[in-house]
Every structure is written in C-alpha cells, then in structure tokens.
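[job 0417] fold request received: Methyltransferase domain-containing protein
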Amino acid sequence: MDLTFPLGNASSNEDKRCKDSPYYIKIVGDKLTGPMRDLLENYSGIPSDEVERHVYELRDRAWNVHPYPCIGIFAFLDLSTSRYPAYGKVIELLKPKADVSEDQARFLDIACCFGQDIRKLIHDGVPASAVYGTDIKREFLDLGFEFFKDKAKFPEPERQFFVADIFDAAGPERAGIWNEMMGKFTVIQMANFLHLFTYERQLQICCTVARLLVAKPGALVVGRQLGSADPREVERGLLVSSSGSRYWHSPETFRQMWAEAGEKTGTKWDVDVRFIELDEEKLKLLKELKQNATAAGAERKQRLNYLVFTVTRV
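[job 0417] inference complete; emitting structure tokens
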C-alpha cells in the first residue's frame, strides 16, 4: 500500500467503510495530475474526460474491499516509485538487453495493491513479461487489471500477479509459488510494507528478500516506509483494524537490520537510506486526528518521516 497512518483503537472494517471517515476524501483535486493521468490516458487508453469518473469508481470499489487510508485519500495515484534515487538504475536493469542470450531481469513488487508502480515501469519501457506483483488480497490485484485495462498485456497475468503471504516464503519448506520464485528477481520493491511489523519480523522479511533476489552483485531492493530519528516499537494500530507493535527505523537501525540479514543469509549489502519528510497534506490529516508522531508523542518533539532506501547486493 502507498500510505499508512496511526489509528489507535480500531473497530470493525464495516464501521471504517463509512464514507464519513476522515480517511475518505470526496474530491480527488490535484492528485489526478501529471504521471498518473498520463498513465491512465496514454498507457490504459482512457479518454481524458472519463479519467476522473474512472478513478472515483475504482477507489469506491476498493474502499468496500478494505478501507485502507491510502485508498480513501487517493494516495495510490502518487507514482512515487518513479522519484526514487535509483529509479533510473531500476529501468536500466529491467529493460531488454541487446544480448538476447542473457536472462531477462525480473521485478517483484511486494504488497503491490493495484500494481500502479508496475504499470509505470511498463510505460517507461520495461517488458510486461518482466514484472510481478503480490498482495494478500486477490480483489486488489483484479481491480488493478480493471483500473489499467491491461490484463491482456501480460503473458501470464494470474501468475505474474499472485496472492501470497511473504511469511510463507521463509524456511526450507516454502509454500506454493514462493518455492519457484527463489533467486529469480533482479529488483524487488517494498513500499510502505516493512513498517507494519516488528523488528524481528522485518528482519525475517529481509532475509527472504535476499533469497528471492538473483545471486549477483547489483541486485536491488528499493522502497520507502515510515521512520523516525528516534527508532522505536510503536504500540498502536497502523492500519484499520490492526493491532500490536510495529518498529519504526532510523537510517542507522535500518542499516543494522540489513547487516544482520546479510549475516544470516551469507550475503553483503550496500545500504543507501535517507529521510524524506511527509508532505504537508498528509501531516495535516494526521494532525487533525491528533494521531501523528508530533501530536501523540509531543514529548519526543519530532515529526514523522519517510525512509527511502536503495539496498544493493555487493
């Protein structure tokens, strides 16, 4: 998913689906500009005067599946992956090579939701056969095909967009599709995913990701997540109807985690990680709910940040 916010104690998903929720924004406004409009018009072939209606319809159907904040506030329209420091490198790795005997590089987006970042990669020249996405909800993957009107573009759509739990990929007896995926990917994205879990669970995911990547120098892990200069476990729900603790990293603890993953998997990693402050619109929404890091933890006197990272196998 593209954004998560603290919610405190959550009631049922049925209650949260109410369109009076502060996370349900009724007007898309200027969110539907630039790269996403270009994608919908020129990749998906949706007429300009139909794009807005198409977006509202998709958002409402997805909201009824699960009222994630990122759906309600249209955060999925922000193709922020294309602003990664390593985006140019990602495209370079995934585009077809002149040497046809060389294996095709593959991209995996973990917790891809509608797969919007995947479509941006294709629009920027990556072959549709090179991209894969996974999510725990089949409904979101299917809505992605409808949103972008592109199921026929993928050689194996049901295999390339598959339902799976990343924790099923750990250990010697891997479940289902994960077993055949090991060592197959050149680039893996984890966007707003790791911060949903404890430090130990995040470390487990990183070890799995290390095994999913090809065993070659230059393989990449890219992504973003909530973080804090004061790294800590957060004892509150980050998603609707979620509970338990999550760990918010600083750049230092994020590097430490990848060093531990390297020790456990016999791999080495160069970790580039940097802070980017949440934009003012998202901060305003959090402050209105009195649930952001500044308001709920005023004694810490610091803002919530994003960590943007590029992890390279060496």
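[job 0417] notes: The mean pLDDT is 85. The first helix runs from residue 13 to 16.
[job 0417] exit 0
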